[in-house]
User: Fold this.
Amino acid sequence: MAGSGLWRKPRWAIVWLLAIDVLVAVWAATASFMGHDTLGWPVLLRFVVFAGCATAHLVGTREPEERRRDADRRTEHVDQTSIWFFGAALVLPVPLVLALVGLVRVQRYLIARKPLHTFVFTSASIAASALGVHALSAATPLRAWLTGERDLPREPTMDMLIAVGALSGAVAIYFLAQALLVGVARGLITGRWSLSNLLGDRRTNLFILTTLFMAVCAGVLQAFVVVLVLVMVPIAVRSTRVEQQLKQKTADAEHDSKTELLNDRGFSPAAAVQLYGDQLAGRPSALLFCDIDLFKEWNDRLGHIGADQVLGALAKVLRTTVRDSDLVCRWGGEEFLVLLPGTAADEAVEIAERIRLRFATMALTVKKPAGGQEVTLNADERDGDGFTISIGIAVSPDHGTELEAIKEVANQAMKTAKDEGRNQVVLAPVAPHRAVTPVG
Assistant:
């Protein structure tokens, strides 16, 4: 659930985020106070084992987790630490469950790359899931079976059915608590309330259910011998690494290697979904068609390596100027697309102007192809020795509802900007309406 700042989110999203943080804190405090668990050595041993397994898992997956988090920087990231949270919630007192969540989350925060309020809300969602599992485990014979207070059911009897049902219920509680808390927040922030937007996509949910299956295994294994949980560590590490490798292959196929932005394969399907969602909600969408001015001359002057640095400079400007919910794509050559969901024409022009100005004033030092001499470009926008960009804008539904149609209109607006002197923003006319920014 990406976002640039808590107070910039919609009002009801802010209320939801803060309310959940407070309610989960109250629930945690109440459950800790009302609990009657004794902290004997078997309980402490279980905590030490789960904490040790979680720490080993964190250490063993730090690099792939950093890569996965980078790939997921615009979406919710799901890791496999739930294996230890879920297992601990089945058998440990609430204070120790919360201590484990805190221990792991503090370590994860170092690589989370998320705003603090987002990280706190996600942690509260995890705590809510763990508290729900703990409540179910304590309300049924499940906890007594898993802690050795009662013998585990070993034959297909009613107790066996109750145990399977309780474990299935615990999985459902853990999954739904996080999915709904985060899904409602996502809906309030984006304004999209589809089932997939609320509960997540199929691949992510399959990954979560696989993680919870391993969590059930960890909880059952410790019922026989506590240290048996250790066998889940290499399995969890391997699972995380395989998931990272699969995600990396997908990311490589959907991203441009020079700029690390989306390519057509990654952009078009996501943009089509965004456009359709805005249309259903009655919101406008804006598409920016960006083209670096006189790029062939820059390529001849700087060589391919230098020209690639110019492409990278524009990619950096785009990434740091648009919002987390926007889609940015290197369409091909020196052409870039930016889809701005939920954005009307006036706001799109403002965003495009910021992009144009930042690119035209962004100092970039590159080496010339011969002799390796360094040259600084855009040191002063007025000296005429810098790169610029022309941007055309089309807005849905005014200019169409299909991605290809909107893209063609934005492309024509960009060509108009080129014809009228470059280094400017042109909004495609609508009966007729056009906003042109003079050359700066």
Notes: The CA atoms of residues 106 and 393 lie 43 Å apart.
